[in-house]
Amino acid sequence: MLQKIGFQPGINKQISETTAEGQWVDCDNVRFRYGTPEKIGGWKQLGTNDLTGAVRGLHHFVNSLGRKYAIIGSNRILYAFSGGIFYDIHPIKTTTTLTNAFSTTNGSAVVTLTFSGAHNIAAGEILLLDNFTTITGSNFSASDFDDKKFMVTSVPSTTTLTITMPSNETGSGATTSGGIRVQHYYPVGPAVQSEGFGYGLGSWGGEAAGAVTTTLNGALLDDTAGTGGSGTSIVLTDATQFPSSGTNFIQVGNEEISYTGVTGNTLTGITRAVRNSTRSSHSSGATVTNTTDFIAWGEAASGDLVIEPGMWSIDNFGDKAICLIHNSAVFSWDSSLSNATETRAAIITGAPTASRHMIVSTPDRHLVFFGTETTIGDTSTQDDMFIRFSDQEDINTYTPTATNTAGTQRLADGSQIRGAIRGRDAIYVWTDTALFTQRFVGQPFTFAFAQVGTHCGLVGQNACVEVDGAAYWMSENGFFRYAGKLESLPCLVEDFVYDDINLDSGNQMVSAGLNNLFGEVMWFYPTSTSSVVNKMVAYNYFDSSIQRPVWTVGTLARTMWRDSAVFGKPHATFYDADTDTSFDVVGNTEGITTYYEHEIGTDQNKNGTITAVTANISSGDYDITQARAQGTGKVTGVATFRGDGEFLMKIRRFVPDFISQTGATRVTLQLKNYPNSTQSSSPLGPFDITSSTTKVDTRARARAVAMKIENTAASQSWKLGTFRLDLQPDGRR
Known about the structure:
Blueprint: E1 2-4, E2 24-28, E3 30-33, E4 36-39, E5 43-45, E6 51-52, E7 55-62, E8 68-74, E9 78-82, E10 85-88, E11 92-98, E12 102-103, E13 110-114, E14 126-133, H1 142-145, E15 148-151, E16 154-157, E17 160-164, E18 179-185, E19 194-195, H2 201-204, E20 207-209, E21 213-215, E22 234-235, E23 248-252, E24 255-259, E25 261-263, E26 266-268, E27 271-274, E28 287-290, E29 293-296, E30 299-300, E31 306-307, E32 312-317, E33 320-325, E34 330-334, E35 346-347, E36 357-361, E37 366-370, E38 386-389, E39 407-410, E40 417-422, E41 427-431, E42 434-442, E43 446-454, E44 464-467, E45 470-475, E46 478-482, E47 486-488, H3 494-498, E48 511-515, E49 520-525, E50 535-540, E51 551-554, E52 560-562, E53 571-576, E54 585-586, E55 592-598, E56 603-606, E57 609-612, E58 616-619, E59 624-628, E60 635-641, E61 649-655, E62 658-662, E63 665-672, E64 680-681, E65 687-689, E66 696-702, E67 704-710, E68 717-720, E69 724-729
């Protein structure tokens, strides 16, 4: 007898697959609309190039001339995107002209630059070179250096650094010859978050005593051995400035390694993956940093420290893009200038020089800094709970007077301000423990602050969105909503997410995205085995109710996401840590970011290469029982769904039903006899269904059956209707 199979909307992972009869238990790249699952839309690359590093800042706006801009901040470079082109608008920190600068070696791609004094540049930072003068003894010429950006490979000393060319020196080699102008980009921070004493602490948290860098002379495999895949030693290019007595530490990538001795350029007595880091493979030439002695504002550190990733807070003050480097300075870029794309962001004079977060308050037009300095210009006074705001309409004035609206406020609940977003009638401000509102009230107080939630802190800076007067966010202990009152969002995938999310070294990499076209709030996060974002969880506020919240999960990995308000479609960024070739930085080792437009077609289009977006959804287990004639105990032969599993069932056929379908959609009947049995596919399956398929013969037999719907190839999409199964009882064994 044919029976309809009905499913509740959303994914439920809080119960077993056997318990989840009539529910969906897993999915990927699927959303629900009007209670029905469907494959999500595709995406295509914007622009023809990949960006350097990991993007952790994204803002869209339209200027007064009607031109649309996306301001994109990676951990290395700040870009403006407009008209399909990426423009480098990153601010310059220092400019130095070098003479007798170059040293090269025949057969090597490494070039050493020598400065007349301390350069204060770290490995991984970006240099823009120009004004080249000829190097004696080298085949390199002006075309190899002028108007090109390089990532610093290593820092052998306070007055030297190295860069790596795309090809080897074929000349005899140069020794302190030639000249160049070096423009040093403002450093932003590491590509990922980590725990320990590693890369970037000198620039963003304190000073690293003797934190010189060099490179690996040989590869490190993902095992317990040293370079070359054997032994307990690591060979460096230059170990002369690495401490040699006692137990010391180095960092390669995100892995911390201890060593106990130095012989020449070899570190001996190594131990891999210390200080709660994760062992991984590293190629020859990878940067090695001495992390033995960390000093934070004059005090020796003895415990673990979270190294936050390089992040941006980006907003616009009219035509000006306002861009804050996390825990550093703030810059403006004027999009209205006739040569705007040829100019760079410039530091805002008078503004704080170290802040965790920034936002423009509208419509009152104040520039607000969170976790900022109590004394402007003195970074040692940075207070993670302190707020400072500018005078109205004046982003250069921050000292309160009787005639302006500048001011300050310190929040009380929490240890640090985590983030802030604009709401309908207030700014929402989160600490690590609480939620506050910040409302403009005018003089003499300018803003009124009120605590509206406790035990609901924000997990990371980008983990919150606002839509239709409601704020949604992810905390370290659940999902929340605020629309005049604090609500905990019921979540049927909560254990699945929180049991596997990397909050110890990944909370600041969690980011939220709004897809208002489909009523979705998404959170992208790294799992416990990953140092980069690799999973997502989504809440559908269109279809959800208190009785039945609609959640989905998946593998869509995006570091930042912005809604369709400006460009008509959502835009998002994907970070590939394993690919280093970017269009604009020579020697990049930070990975690349691809900028995508979403809800476009059915597939992924990366620079003209089309690949399938595969989507799937799986149900819980169904079983049956037999109906009996009342008062006789006689079996009538009618099977009833949602039974107790007493009887095996024969599944003779099913009738597919799709509301819409492009190409083929695969249906798999997954069979098992007991809850802990291994699932097996029906003997004739899986079945590829097209729009002309009327019925499918199955010849399947089991106590329980689950259904999986998926597409496997490009140009395929589907929206599920109501399937019917032909079932009949088939005995107890």
